[in-house]
Automatic annotation (TrEMBL):
Native species: Vreelandella alkaliphila
GO biological process terms, semicolon-separated: proteolysis
All residue ranges annotated as the Metalloprotease TldD/E N-terminal domain in the record: 33-97
Family label: Belongs to the peptidase U62 family.
Class in the EC hierarchy, top level: hydrolase
GO molecular function: metallopeptidase activity
Transferase among keywords: no
Name of this chain's protein: Metalloprotease PmbA
């Protein structure tokens, strides 16, 4: 990187700025205040056909201030953390608060919920990577993929490496800081046959660069995934079991969490309204978050409101065991925060795992979906309809690639019809899951 990032010095500086903003807010008449400040620095490289396309060095910072006058709320933000800018931002937030309407649910999270256990969760791994070294890694990744016989063209390889610091403080006296890092490498390739062109990709991502997969392995896997899509056909129309690839089943978990989110629930825009305690999945299935997991993608000892994070069991023996609530949404629902301001952290399945080959045998005749397109998911009704591509399966064996079809159902039916979960766990994101086999979905193909 062009300039070394001193995370410790940034922690000290952001802490001072946050404390300055809180003191000023109190002096100017705010009854309560909270401040979030962050600074991030990163390096991004993209190459294509053996040539460097872009080199991007980024540095972003910001400070956001929310003030309360009674139960009137005002928020303002700035990318300038100077004292003059902080003063202007506090004054702007205070002016907004004085002219907004009263909201009985507005205010800081309860002081009794503030985090007191603040361990180092080992989520900061700086990468002393020069621009030339980053370019070499991206070029090696793409070359390994392009060298595979049958690859026709490349859309390039990209490497990104970044680290940052965030600080959250409020007028309860809570102040929490966290350093973090994120590194990734990806490659997208194109293959062609008499039926046309196909593209696919692979990537690796981790907080610790030592945990990234070998660049050549990523390139070769991208090539393998691309070549297997050649000769795609359209599947028949009908009702078939569907196996979701791990990269896609994590999206199903995402739809579930969106429906369990307090904001959707108090607005009555979720298909899981008033479903607490009701059966949603088979009894062998569970889902929980583990925000204090050391080294994990989304680990944090406190949420976006300073509330102590904890393990939350959202699905227990197939039933809805908990909603995902911030302080505000909890008040709107007459409940208590679950420490999820800012979302869920490190979602993990609690389920028996089955080898993917066994899932295919269990499926018999159906579809293995490896790509989804479009945004056809209705969070209010649970209706699900997406364009898809993947592979046709007969007698438990993969027959040929398929494309240009849609799969449709309702999330309620899909969750209830979950047959098994694969042991092919994708650990690259904050949701760790294997393949999901759904008993039946409507397929529109030929």
């Amino acid at each position: 990187m062009a300039q070394a990032f001193d995370a410790a010095a940034q922690q000290v500086l952001l802490t001072q700025r946050a404390e300055e903003a809180l003191a000023l807010a109190k002096k100017l008449g705010a009854d309560a205040a909270e401040v979030g400040a962050s600074v991030d620095q990163g390096l991004g490289i993209s190459v294509r056909l053996g040539e460097v396309e872009t080199v991007e060095l980024s540095r972003d910072q910001g400070i956001a201030i929310t003030l309360y006058v009674g139960q009137r709320k005002g928020s303002a933000s700035s990318t300038d953390a100077s004292s003059a800018s902080i003063k202007a931002t506090v004054e702007k937030a205070l002016a907004i608060a004085r002219y907004t309407g009263e909201d009985p649910a507005a205010g800081l999270a309860d002081a009794s919920l503030m985090a007191t256990d603040l361990p180092d969760l080992k989520v900061h791994y700086p990468w002393a990577l020069t621009t030339d070294e980053a370019i070499d890694l991206a070029l090696a990744c793409e070359k390994a993929g392009r060298d595979v016989a049958g690859i026709h063209q490349s859309e390039g390889a990209s490497l990104s490496s970044g680290e940052g610091v965030r600080v959250y403080a409020n007028s309860h006296g809570f102040l929490g800081t966290q350093k973090g890092s994120s590194h990734s490498l990806s490659c997208m390739l194109i293959a062609q046959d008499e039926k046309g062109m196909q593209r696919d990709y692979d990537y690796t991502s981790a907080r610790n660069p030592a945990m990234l997969r070998d660049p050549a392995e990523v390139g070769r896997e991208a090539a393998s995934r691309t070549l297997r899509r050649l000769g795609a056909q359209r599947p028949p129309t009908g009702t078939f079991p569907v196996l979701f690839d791990p990269s896609l089943s994590s999206g199903l978990v995402g739809h579930l969490m969106g429906a369990l989110a307090g904001g959707a629930l108090y607005r009555e825009s979720s298909f899981l309204c008033d479903r607490l305690g009701s059966q949603l999945f088979p009894s062998w299935f569970g889902l929980e978050e583990r925000p204090m997991e050391v080294g994990a993608t989304a680990s944090s000892p406190f949420d976006a409101e300073g509330v102590q994070t904890r393990n939350n069991r959202f699905i227990d023996q197939g039933s809805v065991a908990s909603y995902m609530l911030s302080a505000y949404s909890a008040r709107r629902l007459g409940m208590q925060s679950t420490g999820n301001a800012g979302g869920a952290r490190n979602l993990r399945l609690l389920a028996p795992l089955t080898p993917r080959d066994d899932l295919l045998k269990q499926m018999g005749r159906g579809i293995w979906v490896t790509e989804l397109m479009g945004q056809g998911v209705n969070g209010v009704t649970g209706d699900y309809s997406r364009g898809a591509a993947g592979f046709w399966v007969e007698n438990g064996e993969i027959q040929h690639p398929i494309e240009e079809f849609t799969i449709a159902s309702n999330l309620n039916s899909m969750f209830a019809g979950l047959v098994a979960v694969g042991d092919d766990i994708d650990t690259r994101g904050s949701i760790h899951t294997g393949s999901w086999l759904i008993d039946a979905m409507t397929v529109a193909g030929n």
